[in-house]
From TrEMBL:
Transmembrane segments: none annotated. Residues 4-179 form the DJ-1/PfpI domain. It comes from the Bacteria. This is DJ-1/PfpI family protein. Belongs to the peptidase C56 family. InterPro entries: C56_PfpI-like (IPR006286), Class_I_gatase-like (IPR029062), DJ-1/PfpI (IPR002818).
Amino acid sequence: MSAKILIVTGDAAESLEVLYPYQRLREEGYEVHIAAPARKTLQFVVHDFEPGFDTYTEKPGYTWPADLAFSEVDPGQYVALVIPGGRAPEYLRNDPELRKILKSFFDTDKPVAQICHGPLLTAAVDGLRGRRVTAYPALELDMQAAGATFQDAEAVVDGTLVSSRAWPDHSRWMREFLKVLRAKAPVT
């Protein structure tokens, strides 16, 4: 049986930040499950930059089925966690079932990959205090308020936590995360 990795997300997650790690980790031989507030078809979004806009724009993206509801997740069955960004983390951080899942991964020092607005979730369980992270640059103050040292870099590795700014940094993010996975939770 291959090692399992959990992706936690919801509606309005950035399409690329869910589907790129999903496919890349499967390519490496991991079994990957997507968990959301409920088992349903999720509506992802595409964030991009348009001339004249001060921030990113949002358009409908891909749809994808959630394999599990957060209430069905047994964190002990998973060797690692992926936290995509987009707008989903803004409301998901309020979900008590998801906070239990996140806390379990940090309490057991399992590998966690987070990107873009995903660190809002790890901040909600005090998982960033004393750590070095990156995130979408607009979250620098949020990361500092959560007790982290923010670094504006493609990927930042702090122990088993690997963070990245956004989808343009995917290659570096997954390269660094796979190094951590191969050391802590190799495919069997």
